[in-house]
Amino acid sequence: ENIRVGSGAVLLNHYSPYATAERFLQLEALTPGRIDLGMGRANSGPPVDLALARTRDAPLRDDYASQVTEIIGYLHHALPEGHDFAALDPTRGIGSAPQAWVLGSSGNSAELAGQLGIGYAFAGFINPNKVKVGLRHYRESFTPTRFGAGTPQVMLSVNMVAAPTEAEALELTWPHRVMRSRTFHGQIPTVADAAA
Questions:
Q1: Could you report the per-residue pLDDT of 8-34, keeping only the tens digit for each?
Q2: Residues 73 and 83 sit within 8 Å (Cβ to Cβ)
Q3: Is there a contact between 162 and 169 (Cβ–Cβ < 8 Å)?
Q4: What digits encode the pLDDT tens for the residues 64-107?
Q5: Are 30 and 60 a contacting pair, CB within 8 Å?
């Protein structure tokens, strides 16, 4: 009854704003007050991004902020008057909306979340040296709106390794370290391969 359910990140460059809002509103209808919608914008690499593209006739675009804003509009039936889809109401019969989160690792994403008054999840595993700056930027940009909780809501995601000793934990990090250095060049190595 108290466990929240949500996405780590819906990569918005792969989905339409309406479809994203509609799916999460359906989940909200099933478990009111327990759904989180995390919205991110990372890519999987050129072939996968093209395969998942909304349209393949045009170059891939980065319209993340407008997608997030449109999704918030659908979730709260609050698209501005004159918007092409303002008449659509996916919220019909649903008394609440999922809690929205912007996922990011930069000042731009922090500012977007703050201006919309929604939660911000900082990807500390991507940009560990910018955690304090990113979270401060979010709090400074935060404006309460009817779309969020009314106060800044922060999540921090980090990579962690646990082992009986510090030496064993450090050893377990080597596959990840090697993989990061070989990004886009192959598979994740085993601990033995990484140690070699």
A1: 889 898 889 999 999 999 999 999 999
A2: yes
A3: yes
A4: 999 999 999 999 999 999 999 999 999 998 999 999 999 999 99
A5: no
Please state, in angstroms and rounded to a whole number, the distance separating the CA atoms of residues 99 and 104: 16
Structure tokens at 171: 């050893």
Closest CA to 11 of 47, 52, 46: 52
Encoded tokens for 104: 């990011």
3-state secondary structure of 175: helix
**Beta-bridge mates of residue 10:** 39
What is each CA distance from 137 to 9, 84, 131, 165, 178, in whole angstroms? 21, 32, 10, 36, 32
CA angle, corner 179, sides to 194 and 6, nearest 5? 125
Q: pTM of the prediction?
A: 0.81
Residue 65: how many other CB atoms lie within 10 Å: 17
Strands 10-11 and 35-40: parallel
What are the start-end ranges of the H helices in the chain? 17-30, 46-52, 64-75, 107-116, 131-141, 166-181, 191-195
Residue 56: its pLDDT value, please?
63
Q: Whole-angstrom Cα distance, residue 151 to residue 174?
A: 39
| Domains of the chain and any CATH numbers | 5-157 (3.20.20.30), 166-195 (no CATH)
Cα–Cα distance, 175 to 182 (Å, whole number) = 10
